[in-house]
Amino acid sequence: MLNGIINIYKEKGYTSHDVVAKARRILSERKIGHTGTLDPEAEGVLPICIGKATGVVPYLTDADKCYEAEVILGAYTTTEDATGEVIERFEVATTKEQISEVIKSFEGSYIQTPPMYSAIKVNGVRLYELARQGLVVDRPSREVKIYSCEMIEWLSELRFKIRVCCSKGTYIRTLCTDIGRKLGCGAYMGELLRTQVGTFLVEDSVTLDVLESHREEVQSYLYPFEEIFKDYKVVTVKENGIKLLQNGNKLQFKYLEEVGAWNEGELIRVHTPKGDFIALYKVNKTQKILQVEKMFL
After folding, report:
1. Cα 152 to the center of its chain, rounded Å
2. How confident is the model at residue 289 (pLDDT cuts 50, 70, 90)?
């Protein structure tokens, strides 16, 4: 059984679920999960988690991400991207300098209203299901963070590309539309490339076709899932604490090889005496124990 993460390059035409289904066939593994939906027409980094590594899916889904997106000025569409129908057109009379200034203005905290064509649920129903019925409902706005946003390529008076690094839950389609709204000339998203998810980079990714043609070498594409937590401190349990660890029990400090200078609530990687990564535990300094956060068995 495989355990680890493969940095897949999702090509256009595939849904994220398509990627998982094809990976299951290629690898003959059932326990596979992806780490954040990419629309069918988008491409780029889509790490998949296999075996025990499926336990890290929520951590990768929450990771910061980077994108390169094409912005098309002069209109709004139903989906906020090029796959939708144009619902309003505008004359465009803005300069490259004005556009660059508006793009940079989105850096920092940013209140964003998710698009109707999204998987967010309102009253138990996904928004895209309502949108397909021609319905528009109020959506709760939420704060996202744009760490950097800059123009990287000027294509024409109506088209340019931006590079965005942002927090989880950011809709790049909506960002493009909001750029157009702030410019006063409308905009929607054209092509989209996700270049980074956490520490996984597009230049290190592999397509499904390459994975299939090199399935005998799959181990060379497999990242240990403990790498996701490489910045977390490590502690080793003593021999008499192994069963407690394997059962996900609380670990009193006396069962640890060494007690570090930890902070209250800090997450710690816990190893067996053989060096196997078993779980993440949370520090409770008041009670002098570690409490299980996530098991990887």
Report:
1. 22
2. very high
For the chain, what percentages of helix, strand and coil (3-state, to nearest 5) are there?
Answer: 30, 35, 35
Q: Which of 173, 208, 227 is the last residue of a domain?
A: 227
Residue 28 near residue 66 (C-beta atoms within 8 A): no
- Catalytic residue numbers read 39
User: Quick check: helix, strand or coil at residue 216?
Assistant: helix
Range of the domain at 133: 65-197
DSSP character for 297?
Answer: -
Complete DSSP assignment for 245-287 = HHTT--EEGGGBS----PPTT-EEEEE-TT--EEEEEEEETTT
Give residue-wise pLDDT tens across range 82-102: 999 999 999 999 999 999 999
**CA–CA gap between residue 144 and residue 111 (Å, rounded):** 6
Distance CA 121, CA 44 (A): 25
Kindly report, residue by residue over 154-186, the tens digit of the pLDDT: 999 999 999 999 999 899 999 999 999 999 999
Q: Is 170 helix (H, G, I), strand (E, B) or coil?
A: coil
Query: What is the phi-psi region of residue 123: left when phi exceeds 0, alpha when psi lies from -120 to 50, beta otherwise?
Result: left
Q: How far is CA 77 from CA 103, 118, 135, 174, 182, in A?
A: 20, 14, 15, 11, 16
Asked if residue 212 and residue 239 are part of one domain, the reply reads no
Cα–Cα separations (whole angstroms), residue 138 to 77, 130, 170, 176, 180: 18, 11, 18, 20, 21
Tokens of 41: 């027409």
User: How many domains are there within the chain?
Assistant: 3
Angstrom distance (rounded) from CA 200 to CA 223: 10
